[in-house]
Structure formats: structure tokens, C-alpha cells
Amino acid sequence: MATITGVRVEDVRFPTSVTADGSDAMNKDADYSAAYVVLETDAPGPDGAPLGGYGLTFTIGRGNDIVAEAARQQAVTLVGRDVDELAADMGALYRDLTADSQLRWLGPEKGVVHLSLAAVLNAVWDLVARRAGKPLWRLLVDLTPEQLVDVADLRYLSDALTRDEALALLKAQEPGRQERLAHLERTGYPVYTTSAGWLGYSDDKLRRLCQEAVDAGYQHVKLKVGADLAEDVRRLTIAREVLGPDRNLMIDANQVWDVPQAIEWMRELARFDPLWIEEPTSPDDILGHAAVRRAVAPVGVATGEHCHNRVMFKQLFQAEAIDYCQLDTGRLASVNEIVAVLLLAAKFGVPVCPHAGGVGLCEMVQHVSVLDYVAIGGDLTGRVTEYVDHLHEHFTDPVTVADRGAGTAYVLPSLPGYSTQMYEESVERFRFPDGAYWVGDTSAPGTTVRDTAVRDTSQHVPH
Amino acid sequence: MATITGVRVEDVRFPTSVTADGSDAMNKDADYSAAYVVLETDAPGPDGAPLGGYGLTFTIGRGNDIVAEAARQQAVTLVGRDVDELAADMGALYRDLTADSQLRWLGPEKGVVHLSLAAVLNAVWDLVARRAGKPLWRLLVDLTPEQLVDVADLRYLSDALTRDEALALLKAQEPGRQERLAHLERTGYPVYTTSAGWLGYSDDKLRRLCQEAVDAGYQHVKLKVGADLAEDVRRLTIAREVLGPDRNLMIDANQVWDVPQAIEWMRELARFDPLWIEEPTSPDDILGHAAVRRAVAPVGVATGEHCHNRVMFKQLFQAEAIDYCQLDTGRLASVNEIVAVLLLAAKFGVPVCPHAGGVGLCEMVQHVSVLDYVAIGGDLTGRVTEYVDHLHEHFTDPVTVADRGAGTAYVLPSLPGYSTQMYEESVERFRFPDGAYWVGDTSAPGTTVRDTAVRDTSQHVPH
């Protein structure tokens, strides 16, 4: 027996706006934040401390408290539930949590109540994997095709993918699972980096970071664009110089353009041979993305970090609107909805290159990418998962990237869970608004935070 | 001078689940609620009391506190602003309020932060109309085409509608404005009723309410469907018997079907000759609605009450997915986004039949429908606006419907504002969780609430 005895939800905010980490054409002053859910149980964990589950969704500052409150209201319904019973039917738990029609009205399946649901379900999946003593990716690839399809939320998808089709697809990938897993255990899962390309960085910093990416073995580097065309040309010229003609350069407009403007702007940027243009327009504009894609080919179109649910992804695939599916582990409703999107992507033959960065997203996407390759998509062609090198120091099981001869890659995590537990010291220090950092004590003693994100806090006025 | 001096946001919930008002295949226990925003000023109103602005968005219970908190965070930024300056450039105010990229992340433009923005902007529009001493519809139809297009949020729409096209469309309607207005002042704006058709009602109650609708002069009646096919057939048989072959019968599935299921179910229900099937599937499924529409013609497809923004409506029009546009005044970001959708609908030739019911939605949609006919769409063909007869008793300027010879219709409101002010007694009594009703005092003295929605409160355990 292991019973969920309590729930704690924290509003944790890192002052990343100080260093312009995360700055792009739409988001100029992001304070990377997490609505962080802790599920407490009465069972002992492997280290003697009680077994817990830790999950989060990512936001960029104000409103993180609103998401946290929604998560609290959803999570309290779990108190008293037995962990092993939950683990035995995670599809049923998902349906329970999404069946509250009063909360559903506030979406449905989008915005705050869907972000908060992601945080809650991420915590449950973390708990279930910890209880099983496995990293989440291994728990998932150990499921049979029937178990995996039972986990997936296939509602509203049957015009594109029936349960039988999903099952057939999973069964077809079953024979190669062990071989593909062995490959990933040798090489890791390929990544690209966005650390170089934030808009707020100077040209010198951009050049230096591009060079560091090359030196570190990256074959893909992404830059933000869309604020000013002349500046984009200047920055892409620098990046191309450093990367050379053969490495992949991706660009990301973060939704700033209308459709005709995206097409026009890309006429000017196509000469830098980008692999993809990411978020060229409103994330809701399926038909707009399809129009942009037709106009800018052979440059690819990528989107997904703001794609709010599987019904939107279904249509992006049906409309042939995207070349790369960038699903987000904090925006989709955890593994249940992610498996559905991975199945759709596999059926439509669109590579999944998950969005990451933020807070804890890298920690989660590595599990998803392993699941995709081993059990669902079964292919690495055109796949590369985002990696951003910040804020990992706040996690107890941070991502590791290494180049083992096949390019820079996520090393498969080995500890039990979803890699989503934060150090209590980090939570305490950056809890908003009462953590030591936010009350103005920028040199609080007794923390173990190795704090790259707050290097310049001496100039920061908490807000 | 009139300065906004304070903001008050209330979580008001009416216990409608007691009587099954509002029950449908998706939403079985709705407690109709409002996140209610009050803007206080230092200027005198016409009655001597200080001038205020009153706005709301509608939810169905749990989570209304979350929307209220988001509205509070958005509304407090208005304190200190001058009302006349705001009124002079409502487009700029809209851009200010939507420019918070941190809150934008929680949507963007959808879910809780968009619902709350609607409530805040509805309050500002109410305030501006009160300050001008006009009902909102008159303030809007008195704007020039240039002023009206400056109010509209046209971002992300230029592939479907440019500013110049919007302006040309408004100018083309200018000569007929006075004539159309005079027509509405004589006849009112045509309505249909949903009061008869909630799923939770017995057959006898259904038959009685249909007969009452016929007796009251309604030419359109709407029923909920989708929970059980045999029951739908039985209920539609009753309704058709009472309505006869010539009156219009609409049906509403409230999103319960997958696309293939919607098509199959409608094969059985088509024989009742429904004018439209409403919300046959996920509100996000643009391509799914288009597929259903192709399959069920000549039955029309209607949707919109959960269509979360103008970008989604743009695509519903582009994909020829709907026959009726049911925009919602609590879900779109007030007049600014509504004008954009009315312009799109006019360009694509889709009749706008706004969603109403809930709390205060009828009060708002009458203003929108007048604006549409007089200044934008310019046509009544195929138009009929929803009307539900409950909860109006809580508003200081409730809707009036009457049959003046052209069918049952909203009588044009004449008091200044957006008709969105609630009685303070109602707010006090139904404020959650501390209002007299919710603390268990179901017979609180001293209220003036004429309370159709809480007839059966003696059996109700507050939750």
C-alpha cells in the first residue's frame, strides 16, 4: 500500500529576465517559472524518506500563481487514492481528472486548466515511475501495446486515428524495441541547442555562443528572429559564418507575424538556408501554418510549444501544415495526451522534435523522445530534441548531454521517475513572492543553488 | 475628468444545478456563475452615485475563483487611468492589456486569461458607454467606419481580411444604418429560446415548455441531444409534434461526439429536420466541423460558444466549416475581438447567431446583434440570437423580449452601458463561498432577488 496523503503546490519563479535568457520577439522579459506539484505518500522511498511524486508545468512569470491554484484544486482530489491502483489504470485517472465539466468550461482542454492538469499528471506519472523503481521512459517502453494505447487519450481523434490503427502501429514497432533501445543507450538521443540565440544577446555574445556550440559538437543551432528584419539578417550572417554551410540553423519567430508577413519575411531569410522556421504565426492558425509551409518550402515549418492539445495537432497533421512536431510536456496533459500525439505523428509521418528549455522541460522531453523512438515512431530521421543549458542546477536528476560519436545527445536518465524533482533549497529560495530571493535577500546563506540564471541579481529589483 | 479609482472582482455563483437548468450531454451539474468586475471612478453618475463600470464573464461553477483572480490581476492595471482617455482609443487599451507577454503565455488568447480579459474589457466598455450616456449598441453604431476598425483586433487576420477590406465593408454599410436601426427599433432583434430543451427535464416538462414557446410566438426552439440516441429520438418526436412542421427546431450536442460518431448520429436525427446541429464535436476541431458539415447537409452546422478567439473563427470561415457563427460575449475579448469576428463573418457571408443564456450573456448579445445588423453584417436573413429565460432578475437592466409582429425579439435596451450591472443584493447573496446562500442561509432576509433558479434550494447541499 502507498496512499497519497497530501498535496503541495508551489509558485516558483526564477528571475531570468535579468540576463535576457529567454528573450524573443514576443517575450521580452520572461521570468522562467514553474507551477510545481508535490504529491506526498505514506510509503517509504528508496532513500528512507517518504515516497513522493513531483511534477510541474512551465510559465514565464506573472500568472504562475493562477496556474498553481488551478493545479491545487485538481490535485487535492488525489488525496486518499492508492498509488498502485492509480498505476494500474492511468487512463482511468486521466478521464477522472478531465471529467470535471465545471473546470472543463474554462478551456476546454486549453489554457490555465490544461497547463495545471499537465503539472498534476506529470507528478502522478513521476510518482508511479518512482514507485516502480524505474525512470519513466523505461516504465513506458515496458508497457505492452495494449497498455500503452489504454493510457492514451484518443477522444476526438477517430477521424484520423482509430484505437485499432493505434494498436496496429504499436504492434508493428514491437519487434525492434530492444534494438532501438540498445542504440539509444549507446548514443543518447540527438539534441540541438537554443542557448546561443536569444534576441536580447549582443552580437559578440551571439558569436561566442555559436562558436561554443560548434566546439561542443552541436550539428543544430537555433536563433530567435522576427523583431527587426535588418537585425535578423545581421545575426543570421554571424551565425552562418560560425556554423559553416553544413551545420543546421533553425530560426524561431515566436508567433509575431501575420501569415502574409511571415511569407514575405521568410523570402529574405531563406538565403541563410534554415532547416525550419518555428512559430511563424499564431499557434492556433492551422490553415495559416499550412499556407506558410506551401510558400516557404523547402524551408520546413515547425510548431507545437503553444499547440494546446491533441485535437490541434491532429489538424496540423491533417492539413499538412508542419514538417516538425514540437510538442510540449508542460502544455499537453502529460503522458496520456503525449502518447496520443506521438501516435498521430507516427501515422502521418511527421518527425517529433519536442520543445524544451524553460524550467524542467529538458528533464521531461528526454523521456518522451526515448519512448517515441523505441515504441512509437521508431525512427531518428529528422529528429532532434531541444536542449537549453540553464536552470538544470535546480533539479535533483538534471539532464546530461554528451557527444558519444553521433553528435550531442541526451544521455538516458537512470534514476526512477520523470526527472522532475527540484531541490527543496531552490523551491524555498525562489518561491514567489516570499522566497529569500524575492524578498530581496540575494545572498541567502545555506542554499546549494549553483545559480547561472541569477548571475546579475545585484542589479535586479524584484517585481 | 473621471479617474478609475478602484477595482473589485467578485466570484458569484448561482446554484442552478439544483433544477437541472443548463444540463446537457457534456455539462450535467452546472452552477451558472460570473466572474464579475466592478470599476470604480471618482466621477458622479446620472443618479448621483459614483459612475462605475460593470463587466463579467460566464463560467459554470468550480474555477470561477481562478478566472476572478486572473481578472483582478488584469484589472488593477487600470487604476489611475482616465476614462475619457481610455474611451478615445479603446484599440490602444486592448493592445495594452494583451501585451503582457507573461500572462499571454498562459493562453495565448484562450482559456482562463482570455475569459478574464473579456470580463475586464466588458467592464471598461460598460463604463465608457455609461460615461457617454448611451447604451453600448448606440455608442458603437455612432462610431465612424474608421473608428470602428480602429477598435477591432485584426492581428493574425490579414490573410483573410485586411484593414482596407474591413474599412470598405463598413463604409458600404454606412448609407443604410439609419434605416436598419429604425427597423430594429420597431421590431426588436429576432431571438430563439433554449429554455425548453435541457437534457435533465422530464418529457412532460419538455412538452409543456415547447408548448409555452409556441404560445409565446417563438419560431425557433433548441433542444439538447447527444447523451442517448433513443432518448434523443423520443424527445425530438415530442418537440416536433408540438412545434409542427414549419417552426424551426435546432439541436445541440455540446461537443460529445467524435467526428464519425457525429455523422452517424445525425443520420438518425436528420428526419426531424433540424435547422442546425450545434457543437457536434470538439470546439477546436475546425477540419472536423467541416467534415461534419459536408456529411450532414442540408442540416446546418453551428458552433462558437467555445470558439476561443478570432483566429479560430477565421479558420472556421476559411474551411467553410459552419453555417452559423455563435460567438460568445464572455469568451471573446469583448467588443474589440467581437467586431473583428463580425467583420470576418460579413466578409465570408456567414450569419452571426450569438450564444447566450448563462449569466448576463443575453444582456450583452443584444448589443452585439444590433451592432452587427446596423453597421456590419447589414442583414437579418438567417439570423436569430439565443435567448434563455433565467437569471435576468439579478441584473439592473435585464433583457426584454416581445413579439411586435415579426416574431419574438429582444427589445433594444435604452439605459446607458452594456446592461451588465448586477444588483448588489444578488452579488452579496450568491458570492462564493461566503454569500448568504452558500453559507447555508437559504432564506436570508432583505434581498430583492426574485429567484427562479433556486426554487428547490431546500434540497440543496451547498458545495
Automatic annotation (TrEMBL), chains A, B:
Enzyme class: lyase
SUPFAM superfamilies, alphabetized: Enolase C-terminal domain-like, Enolase N-terminal domain-like
Gene3D superfamilies linked to this entry: Enolase-like C-terminal domain, Enolase-like, N-terminal domain
Alphabetical UniProt keywords: Lyase, Magnesium, Metal-binding
Names of required cofactors: Mg(2+)
Gene Ontology biological process terms in this record: amino acid catabolic process; carbohydrate catabolic process
The protein, known as: L-fuconate dehydratase
Matching SMART domains: MR_MLE
Domain Mandelate racemase/muconate lactonizing enzyme C-terminal: 203-299
Record's catalysed reaction(s): L-fuconate = 2-dehydro-3-deoxy-L-fuconate + H2O
Pfam family for this entry, one: MR_MLE_N
The EC number(s) this enzyme carries: 4.2.1.68
GO MF annotation, one: magnesium ion binding
InterPro entries per record: Enolase-like_C_sf, Enolase-like_N, Enolase_C-like, L-fuconate_dehydratase, Mandel_Rmase/mucon_lact_enz_CS, Mandelate_racemase_C, Mandelate_racemase_N_dom, RHMD-like
